[in-house]
Amino acid sequence: MTTYLTPVNLTDVARVDPKHLALAMQYMVETGRGLTMLRGITEAELRQVDQALWDELSSHPAERVAVLVRFRCLIGVFAARRLANLLMQTGYRLLAPAVCVAARMRLNADLGFNPGKFERALIKQLERIDSGPALAA
């Protein structure tokens, strides 16, 4: 039986399920590398993330590759000073909204995420969370 893989278009990386992208971030946090967004990521660490995602996404190789590309670009966009500052001010509560934005925003893998657009989308996501339904007294 021949298996055909869907090619990944790196000029317009497919959107992914935020839960799948969150798995990559969760792996980094659980292995004591939660500051990856501030310090960057090595090729060795990316290979470890790929291994960690293998069990969850082994039947969807194109999704796994898209998740890894988006994860790398998510880490890369936080090299922008304004996003690094936002992370320092907001803390870990920024991770889930950042993952949601990175999973859905248009992405050219060569260029990465546009830091200005990413910041605006992230702030909008944070505002949406902060203005969620109030608990009844």
Describe the fold and architecture.
By secondary structure, the protein is mostly helical. It has one domain. About 60% of the residues lie in helices and about 0% in strands. The protein is built from seven helices and no strands. Helix 3 runs antiparallel to helix 4 and helix 4 crosses helix 6. It is globular. The chain starts with 17 loop residues before the first helix and ends in a 7-residue tail after the last helix.
Short description:
With 137 residues, the protein is mainly alpha-helical.
What topology does this entry show?
Elements: H1 18-30, H2 36-39, H3 43-57, H4 61-77, H5 81-90, H6 95-104, H7 115-130
Attribute tags:
single chain; 137 residues; mainly alpha; 7 helices; globular
Structural class given helices, strands, pairing?
mainly alpha
Largest sheet: none
Helix content: 55-70%
Share in β-strands: under 5%
Mean pLDDT across all amino acids? 87
Low-pLDDT windows of residues: none
Number of helices: 7
Distance between the termini: 61 Å
Order of helices and strands: HHHHHHH
- Count of DSSP E strands? 0
User: What is the global morphology?
Assistant: globular
